[in-house]
Amino acid sequence: MTETIVVKIGSSSLTSDEGGINRERISFFSNELAALHEAGYQVILVTSGAVAAGFRRIGYAARPKLIHEKQAAAAVGQALLMQAYQEAFAAFGESGGIAAAQILLTRADFSNRKRIQNALMTVEELLHQRAVPIINENDTVATDELKFGDNDTLSALVANLVKAKRLIILTDMDGLYSEDPRNNPNAVRIERVDQISDEILSFAGGSGSSVGTGGMRSKIEAARISMRGGIPAFIGRVCEPGDMKLAVDGIGKGTYFDTSMHNLPMKKQWLGFHSFPQGRIVVDEGAQRALLDGGKSLLPVGIRSIEGDFHSGDVVEVINEQEQILGRGVVNYEAWQIQAVAGLSTEEVKRRMEVVRIEVIHRDEWVTLKS
């Protein structure tokens, strides 16, 4: 069976700080991806850079901050970006080179099972035809509340969707360090991560460049999503010819994230990472322990409060009283019903109203997101 590699390349690797496309870098990365393609892999590229590529061309002096300005810049930049990729991939292979295909997705696409299944069928057909799908967020239509925030998350969702052999997330650093090596020469690189703990997350800082939106933390969060889907991830650098193949082979310049302890079935992958929560439920410490450590369902007695107006069958986010996200689940109650029974014992709930199921969220409809 042909193996699929998903590669995510960020804005800072493709554009300049002043804005505009760095065609030399796009040519280099296209060459690296073409080498994987010719080695027999199916290759999917998740690219950033539309806003960074377009803001100068449309007339902005600096990267815009207002949403409508970003969307205008992305509309211009996406066309420029795809033109550059198509020209670069055309130089490889026979009969006009490797075909590059554009796919624009939003968070809402992943939240709708039919739409994302249609997108998957398109990607699979492109791969079957030996094309390279180039995926980006559809910045011109995505709203703030429905945005991925960065393409690191998008790349992890795509890797899980296509059941990739490996997710490669490129950055300007050769992996995750105990501290920022640019500030501390004694910082130690983390070669391999089996579990993304609070300590691992603490090693990550903020956004690393002026042209992108993702820093090391967002890349680690993306690796977590990938790992939970059973897809190993790599975060690191590809700066010399052949580096991409080394990263795929497990000997690249960066940090590897293992999957031996993590593997969610597809249903729970959708629930945990693709769905869009319609509200929140705040739970007490006892309910937190039951959900995270006991493998139990969420009962009314452990609920403190709710946020949002949701319905039975909707996905909601569950948080503790410190506002830490614990996980997501499908609720069996209307929001108003939960308000009426929050904090009550099972016996008291049964006395007050008729309910089909006593569990607010059954454990089979729950996925833990807290480490």
Describe the structure.
- Keywords: Amino-acid biosynthesis, ATP-binding, Cytoplasm, Kinase, Nucleotide-binding, Proline biosynthesis, Transferase.
- The two termini are 33 Å apart.
- The protein has helices at 11-14, 23-38, 50-58, 67-89, 107-111, 113-128, 151-162, 198-202, 216-228, 243-249, 266-274, 285-292, 335-341, 346-352, and strands at 4-9, 42-47, 100-105, 132-137, 166-170, 176-177, 189-190, 192-193, 233-237, 253-257, 280-283, 303-307, 315-319, 325-330, 366-368.
- The chain has 14 helices and 15 strands.
- By secondary structure, the chain is an alpha/beta fold.
- The chain has two domains: 4-267, Carbamate kinase, CATH 3.40.1160.10; 277-368, Archaeosine Trna-guanine Transglycosylase, Chain: A, domain 4.
- It has an eight-stranded mixed beta sheet with strand order 3-4-2-1-5-9-10-8, with helices on both faces. A five-stranded mixed beta sheet has the order 12-11-13-14-15, sandwiched between helices. Strands 6-7 form a two-stranded antiparallel ribbon.
- It is 38% helix and 18% strand.
- The protein is elongated, with a radius of gyration of 22 Å.
The N- to C-terminal Cα distance equals 33 Å
According to DSSP, the number of beta strands is: 15
Summed up, the helix count is 14
Please write the CATH class name of the largest domain: Alpha Beta
The proportion of residues in beta strands is 15-25%
Widest beta sheet: strand line-up: 3-4-2-1-5-9-10-8
